[in-house]
Amino acid sequence: MADRRGDLYIGFMTDAPLIPASPSEDDYVRQVTAAAPPPLLPEGDPIALFEDWLARAGETEPNDPNAMALATADADGLPDLRMVLLKSVDARGFVFFTNTHSAKGQELAANPQAALLFHWKSQRRQVRVRGRVEAVTPEEADAYFASRARSSQLGAWASEQSAPLPDRLALERRVAEMALKFGLGKVPRPPHWSGYRVAPQVIEFWRDRPFRLHERLVYERAEGGWTTSRLYP
Question: Among residues 212, 216, 221, 230, which one is catalytic?
Fold first, then answer.
């Protein structure tokens, strides 16, 4: 490794920094002089504000604007984290689908609480959500499963998600077996595949501002509605 105090470098063949340097004063000045968005003002409904931000992200993010980091914890409190896709959102909460036998499914069975993080780099925005988790109804799970591509439906039957996999061929063999099992008929939803809804107790909206003086607007669920507050960056 190149010996440069204070910097981490990729390796012997390049001097390109692995971790980008902090913005310079000039970088911040350019950001300040650029067209600045209006102040982040409280809205009556945080879900409506989230939907607006998600729509904006859909116009600029190159891949999966609905991607979110899902944090769970097991029965001992050890945290776990992975990326999943948001499939619906309304006043009741944020919904995703998965194999209920997976690590996340087992952790949610033991500790039905979770946190979400949406990070939209192109928008310089992020949203954090914390709350209790509940299963969606069988009707909701059936409806979403029916909307998936057939290959994805077969994959849901074939994959023992989070279980040890001997090799890639074993997975491909199981997919082929499921294809033969269901033939050209309808693929029903597996009993071990469903959805979860994160019912938000706290939603924080974060927006990048120059000199790391970011905006943080927090909504907390209260009796009859939401309260709002601001946090230091």
Answer: 212
